[in-house]
Amino acid sequence: MTTGADALGEYRARRDFAKTPEPSGARRGGADGGIYVVQKHAARRLHYDFRLELDGVLKSWAVTKEPSRDPRIKRLAVRVEDHPLAYAYFEGTIPAGHYGAGTVRLWDSGRWTPDGDARMGLRRGALRFHLDGPRLRGMWHLVRMRRRPGQTRENWLLIKGREGVALPSGVAA
């Protein structure tokens, strides 16, 4: 994923902002932690976009199923391009024929706090953090999987930590 001055370059290159309601956004300075957001995205395949504010952008993963509050269940989270902070408030329909076409709805949002150095955790592929929102709370982990030959994206696992608040499968928050 792009870092540095043009962290949103890949995001902007994939979109025509004259034809999609998505925010073009600007990168802002940022500290560790901040907001998190989970958006339910009914695109070609239903998935959940998991985003963490870091370094003035939203670090983003496409999670194949609803995040599980059961620590025994791991969810595949495919790393995607960084998004602007304004995307945390985006809900709407991306028109057919455009990247990510489909309906985006807010599913959860709140504050996140890294457990340790978030940048180092991302580089090493093991990010531990605490979420405080209406649906997701407690300790969570993002763990990068080993890349297979020919794989172009980073696959991670989103896992609820055993410490903090955990709910068994099938129990609503």
Largest sheet: 8 strands, antiparallel, barrel
Estimate what percentage of residues fall within beta strands: 35-45%
Helical/strand content category: mainly beta
List unreliable stretches of 5+ residues. Answer: none
Query: What is the total tally of β strands?
Result: 9
Helix % is under 10%
Distance between the termini: 33 Å
- Walk across the major sheet and give the strand order: 1-2-3-4-9-8-7-6
Helix/strand order: HEEEEEEHEEE
Radius of gyration: 15 Å
Number of helices: 2
- The global form is globular
On the 0 to 100 scale, the average pLDDT is: 85
Number of domains: 1
What does this 3D model show about the protein?
- With 173 residues, this protein is mainly β.
- It has one domain (4-160).
- It has helices spanning 9-13, 118-124, and strands at residues 34-42, 46-54, 57-63, 74-84, 92-94, 102-114, 126-132, 137-144, 155-160.
- A hairpin with a 4-residue loop joins strand 7 (126-132) and strand 8.
- It is globular, with a radius of gyration of 15 Å.
- The mean pLDDT is 85.
Write the layout of secondary structure elements.
Layout: H1 9-13, E1 34-42, E2 46-54, E3 57-63, E4 74-84, E5 92-94, E6 102-114, H2 118-124, E7 126-132, E8 137-144, E9 155-160
